[in-house]
Amino acid sequence: MTADEFIATQFTSLAAWMRAAATAGVGSHVYERDGVTAQVSPAIPDASLFNSITYRDADALAAALPELESVYAAAGVRAWTVWVHQSDAAAAELVRKAGHVLDSTPEGMGCAIAELSAPDSLDELDYTASPPLADLQVVLAEGYGYPLELAQRAVGTVPSGADTFVGVVRAEGRPVCTAQVTIAGEDAGVYTVATIPSARGRGFARRLQYVLLQRARELGARTTTLQASKLGAPVYTALGYQSYGAMNMWERRSPRTSPS
User: Fold this and answer.
1) How far apart are CA 27 and CA 44, in angstroms?
2) Which of 33, 70, 75, 85 is nearest to 50 (CA)?
3) Of 2, 96, 144, 216, which has the highest C-beta tally within 10 A?
4) C-alpha–C-alpha distance, residues 56 and 76, integer Å
């Protein structure tokens, strides 16, 4: 995978994730117009991750921004974010002028699925591809440091569909790790990877992700991409992912609320 190939996947892959997340979220829906996709989650109005926007190019984003502001305001959403690759200076300047602030800089990473390095002890992984909703919600809450109520509103049903699958790992009698893969075209996007603090460093996320991506490969996916936190980046590097520059999150937040 080249940097240009990585960038070319991000609009369709992020859009596919937002559609899956909106289907699973309580009261969430998707706004779409030519070249722009946005998740709108009124039940979690101050959580910008679940009110995310992706776009095809800066012109499409410029045309949609005024309407997006109205859409979020009408839904009572007070914080939303636009994903902008670090190479897109035009889009970054556009959202900055619209009042957005650079909030987070996850690393864009990707590789060919065939080039992934198989982790050890795959046969020892105790996981299910049909996880109970409560297990998924608990892992997301503890793994990301969210209140459980927020996780329950963000994920009111387990994301599913022909191109989306979620796994949950259990250890010592409780759920400890989760990951989601959503396929868009030939790319398998990896999202919502979370491990509870007490289970980190034991390779659960790396093994689960590898297993899910092999399933994606069987369904025709050729590449895999993701947006990595500093905590997650070493896990993905060990699997064989390469870095292709920051996928910056430009957040717009009402001054009436404090960051979550």
Assistant:
1) 9
2) 75
3) 216
4) 26
- The DSSP symbol for 113 reads G
pLDDT in tens, 108-152: 999 999 999 999 999 999 999 999 999 999 999 999 999 999 999
User: Which homologous superfamily is 111-243 in?
Assistant: Gcn5-related N-acetyltransferase (GNAT) (3.40.630.30)
CATH number corresponding to 3-109+246-253: 3.40.630
Cα separation of 241 and 258, whole Å? 35
By the 10 Å C-beta count (0-12 exposed, 13-18 middle, 19+ buried), 74 is classed as exposed
User: How far apart (Å, rounded) are the C-alpha atoms in residues 225 and 81?
Assistant: 19
Residue 254 tokens, joined:
């009402």
Q: What is the pTM of this model?
A: 0.92
Question: What are the start and end residues of each CATH 3.40.630.30 domain in the chain?
Answer: 111-243
On whether the CB atoms of residues 165 and 179 are closer than 8 A, the answer is no
Cβ contacts of 220 within 8 Å, gap of 6 or more: 183, 186
